[in-house]
Specification:
Aldehyde Dehydrogenase, Chain A, domain 1; 16 helices; 500 residues; Aldehyde Dehydrogenase, Chain A, domain 2; seven-stranded mixed β-sheet; alpha/beta; binds nicotinamide-adenine-dinucleotide; single chain
């Protein structure tokens, strides 16, 4: 019998009020990884109460002291990196090297945000009146809710929880239903690092009940959500009705542009990694290659050959390059898009069917390439979130940029060219939140803003200094030490006269 994964509320591991459970399944072997408590509204309410109580003292703990706890979190993540990475392969299927990278992002973020404990920079500026001082401070918000997807089950919760905590907020974390055990083990690291009870709570269960209860709870002042555009925008509309601040990181339809003068070998490597890494289930996965006419025949040949050679299997084996997709239903959804592509008239170059490297077990899908895709086809516009790559031809840089920019999403884009002028024009004209030159569409680092334009979000960014924006309010402070009433914008003339 697999171990029971529980909620963590007010510093205690507890079962759900309902007494019900569900199973977390290994998508490669179909074995049960964990039995998980199925929580509901009452559990969310209890966590909000615990977080409200803990906020009273956590906000007053000096930020450098909060930072010391985050450093210990970073250290424990280093010690548990392999253990967490192996659990990740088992719970959601990505291959072990990528799982280690996922935990490494959290380690990087823990030390980066730990350091923020000695910054959390505000600013001062000159003021209009004599004997008066002005400054702007970042203030904590209160109880914040974090709702995360399964595809980066340690990295994404770290992008949210660490900035939220360093800023002095208390947190309720709801991980995806496909990765509850990883969510619980992530929280255990904070417990073991000495985070006080109630400061970070986790509630396990379905999005429709737990996520919705968090999003609509009046005492949860911020929701930071990463997931699908459909769920995110629905939740955003609900939250707006009670004036809740919402940060959204949503879907992508990322493209790699390959110009005639590109380093072809490099472009092929990057495309394979970006399209089929994490089995195409990254918000930044390349699902379109926009290629200039001249180089296209060679690129297509090389991509087909290399795609067919990718090794599928169980991600715990070090030489496996592509793991399963996360669930049976995800695989069906991907296959539907392949059928749509065929009906739309795209040419299936390779793949397009279920794969079976583990003899009847697991949710595997063949890495799939479509050629002769036009920008208006659904497979060129909609997020597939699987190992399916569409090749689109463009005559010029301008046309390639236009094709890139015309989709409903705007997360990341990339261009391969040896021409510095073309690279800078692309930097100027590509309308995505992240732009890569001679690099695939994946590989963001935690010290820069992460997020996208259009349907990818609502203008917020994670990581970097911008991570603090979701979890802080600005407080402007004026200190008048003149001993008399000085009216800003009104008494300026008196001051000037006084100078004469
Ligand atoms: P999802 O939208 O199905 O679920 C995301 C989270 O929302 C889960 O925790 C889920 O339980 C919860 N949820 C579901 N219904 C809810 C509701 N009614 N109210 C509140 N919460 C609810 O997404 P997913 O399948 O887990 O993840 C894949 C999606 O995430 C893709 O679209 C991908 O592009 C996106 N993603 C975006 C980024 C980014 O930074 N832009 C990063 C990773 C993944």
């Amino acid at each position: 019998m697999a171990e029971l994964a529980k909620n963590f509320i007010g510093g205690e591991w507890v079962e759900a009020r309902s007494g019900e459970t569900f199973n977390s399944i290994n998508p490669a072997t179909e074995e049960v990884v964990a039995v998980v408590v199925r929580s509901g509204v009452e559990d969310v309410n209890a966590a909000v109460q615990a977080a409200k109580e803990a906020y009273k003292s956590w906000r007053l703990l000096p930020a450098p002291r909060r930072g010391e706890i985050l450093y210990r979190v970073g250290q424990l993540l280093i010690e548990r990196k392999e253990e967490l990475a192996r659990l990740m392969v088992q719970e959601m299927g990505k291959v072990i090297a990528e799982a280690r990278g996922d935990v490494q992002e959290a380690i990087d973020m823990a030390f980066y945000m730990g350091g923020e404990g000695r910054r959390l920079l505000g600013y001062t500026a000159p003021v209009e009146m004599p004997n008066k001082f002005g400054m702007a401070l970042r203030d904590s918000v209160g109880v914040v809710g974090l709702i995360t997807p399964w595809n980066f089950p340690i990295a994404i919760p770290s992008w949210k929880s660490l900035p939220a905590l360093i800023a002095g907020n208390t947190v309720i974390f709801k991980p995806a239903s496909d990765t509850p055990k990883l969510g619980a083990e992530f929280v255990r690291v904070f417990q073991d690092a000495g985070l006080p009870p109630g400061v970070l709570n986790i509630i396990l269960g379905p999005g429709g009940s737990v996520g919705n209860a968090l999003a609509t709870h009046p005492d949860v002042r911020v929701i930071s959500f990463t997931g699908s555009t459909e769920v995110g925008y629905r939740m955003y509309a609900q939250a707006a009705q009670i004036g809740k601040k919402v940060s959204l990181e949503l879907g992508g339809k990322n493209a790699i542009i390959v110009m005639d003068d590109a380093n072809l070998d490099l472009a092929v490597e990057a495309i394979l990694w970006s399209a089929f890494g994490t089995t195409g289930q990254r918000c930044t996965a390349a699902s379109r290659v926009i290629v200039q006419k001249g180089i296209k025949p060679r690129l297509v040949d090389m991509l087909r050959e290399r795609t067919q050679a990718l090794k599928l299997g169980y991600g715990l084996e070090e030489d496996v390059q592509v793991g399963p997709v996360v669930s049976r239903s995800a695989r069906e959804g991907i296959h539907k898009y392949v059928e749509i592509g065929k009906h739309e008239g795209a040419t299936l170059l390779t793949g397009g069917a279920f794969a079976d490297p583990l003899d009847g077990k697991g949710f595997f899908y063949q890495p799939t390439l479509f050629d002769h895709v036009t920008p208006t086809m659904r497979i060129a516009r909609e997020e597939i979130f699987g190992p399916v790559l569409s090749i689109i031809e463009a005559a010029s840089l301008d046309e390639a940029v236009e094709i890139n920019n015309q989709v409903a999403y705007g997360l990341s884009s990339s261009i391969f060219t040896e021409n510095v002028n073309a690279a800078f024009r692309a930097i100027r004209d590509l309308t995505t939140g992240i732009v890569y030159i001679n690099h695939g569409t994946t590989g963001a680092e935690i010290q820069f803003p992460f997020g996208g334009t259009r349907g990818t979000g609502n203008g917020m960014r994670e990581a970097g200094q911008t991570a603090l924006d979701s979890f802080t309010e600005w407080k402007a402070v004026y200190v008048d030490f003149s001993g008399r009433l000085q009216r800003a914008q009104i008494d300026t003339e008196t001051i000037l006269k006084g100078q004469e």
